[in-house]
Amino acid sequence: MSANIAEMEKRRDAAKLGGGQKRIDAQHAKGKLTARERLDVLLDEGSFEEMDLYVEHDCVDFGMQDQKIPGDGVVTGSGTINGRLVYVFSQDFTVFGGSLSARHAQKICKVMDAAMKVGAPVIGLNDSGGARIQEGVASLGGYADVFQRNVLASGVVPQLSLIMGPCAGGAVYSPAMTDFIFMVKDSSYMFVTGPDVVKTVTNEVVTQEQLGGAIVHSSKTSVSDMALENDIEALLAARDFFDFLPSSNRDDVPERPTADAWDRLEHSLDTIVPPSANQPYDMHEVIRKTVDEGEFFELQPLHAGNILIGFGRIEGRTVGIVANQPMVMAGVLDIDSSRKAARFVRFCDAFGIPIITFVDVPGFLPGTDQEHNGIIKHGAKLLFAYGEATVPKITVITRKAYGGAYDVMSSKHLRGDLNYAWPTAEIAVMGAKGAVEIIFRGLDADGIAAKTKEYEDRFANPFVAASRGYIDEVIYPHSTRRRIALGLRKLRNKSLENPWKKHDNIPL
Ligand code: HXC
């Protein structure tokens, strides 16, 4: 018996060395952790239970029959994060460059299937040279098996991808179909075709970082939700982030104790909106002063800063927050901000996370650039996302809610459950001056000024909308947190269903 145990231990130890000490040292020299070290940081200490440690590839081409490494380049299993179950896979770059063989893919599929069965999130740590070149089409088939599972798991269990090394070719499409992507600066990149192919086809000379590094994807493309400094920071951020997520679409949002009183009043909010409609203020402050302990986990902070998205908690329970940001382009809605918020709203709706929307929006951004790039279709995404969402929706209009953007931003008409306005709210078709210049074309400057004043008096307030029931109540800004907490309590058992359909046809 003891000989058997010794044999098991020998095999385990050998398997855990992956591609060997030399390659582990090379990984460390690049400032990267190994696949197993990453799991140690991500998961609660001692919670990792590995599966398929002894799986090997079955390739016999190009001498591969003589190169077998147990585990085949990916460490898979389950563990806990702050006590909650999660399924994980972590690609091991020290084994054939973390490249994906049919068996490697089979291991990933196994954890995804297990996660789906029990309703637990999947976190993938990606560090891979892509398809195992020696395996050819078997590897491509393996990728497609993973892709199919990404699709089926979407909206059932949360899926998070951490990109911690190369991720190229068609391999990018697995993370791309997960809910969130975190990238590590300077050591990770994602592109469909790398710099060499780009040079051959387009003659452009570009580095990996410029083509698909963490900053490019977190600021320009929005493929990535976060750019973190290094492996440790990314893994710790993933732990914090995980705490906001429900385990599946069958589970309630997580709840944790908080010392922050639900009815805390924030008197500084009474004066945060400046007297002039053209002066900005920081919507982050409104959010932080509303959520528990000021903790706002912002996503995509570097992309489309005119809208803010992220998670917070009220009374210890997760809420999704969407907010126009007057500090950036006056909080206008454009293509990027509409897409950014729409996908977030849909995630929240899929997983039963209530949505709090703070509104200060002057409308949609005008111009040929926006029109020719499809603001109609992209703006419709956000409208559609809010309109289909059946989770609790609470809206607070802090200042401007102009035009179509008023309708879009979780208005009463899109089944907003509780629509509040601060006394500083202005709900109108457009800003007063613009409106007057259209309806009183030809008036002299004095006439315009007089009519502008008249329009402002009439519409630059929340009471016209409130008199129609479009606003449920005009509230003191200082009572915002209290109102939201009370609202969420009331809405806890909200039940609302959309008509039966196979699926909708959101404008993609
Ligand atoms: C098999 C691979 C591999 C791969 C790397 N290795 N990529 N083995 N298949 N795809 C092996 C190397 O042979 C090497 O083995 C070890 O991993 C480390 O690789 P290095 O090149 O030494 O590392 P580095 O200099 O850091 O460069 C990493 C890299 C480079 C940029 C990822 O290895 C590379 O360009 N690899 C090929 C990438 C690629 O073209 N993949 C196919 C993409 S197409 P030893 O034994 O020396 O340690 C694709 C299609 C997916 O993925 C389609 C899905 C639909």
Plain-language structure description:
This protein has helices spanning 2-16, 21-29, 35-42, 102-118, 137-153, 173-176, 195-202, 208-212, 214-221, 231-242, 283-290, 335-350, 368-372, 375-388, 403-408, 432-439, 445-459, 463-467, 480-491; strands at 49-51, 74-81, 84-91, 122-126, 159-163, 166-168, 180-184, 189-191, 226-228, 297-299, 307-314, 317-324, 355-361, 393-402, 418-421, 426-428, 473-474. It is α/β, with parallel strands linked by helices and 508 residues long. It has two domains: 2-242, 2-enoyl-CoA Hydratase, Chain A, domain 1 (Alpha-Beta Complex), CATH 3.90.226.10; 267-425 and 461-491, 2-enoyl-CoA Hydratase, Chain A, domain 1 (Alpha-Beta Complex), CATH 3.90.226.10. The strands form three sheets. Strands 10, 11, 12, 13, 14, 15, 16 and 17 form an eight-stranded mixed β-sheet that branches. A seven-stranded mixed β-sheet has the order 1-2-3-4-5-7-9, sandwiched between helices. Helix 5 links the parallel strand 4 (122-126) and strand 5. The radius of gyration is 26 Å and the shape is elongated. 47% of the residues are buried. The structure holds hexanoyl-coenzyme A.
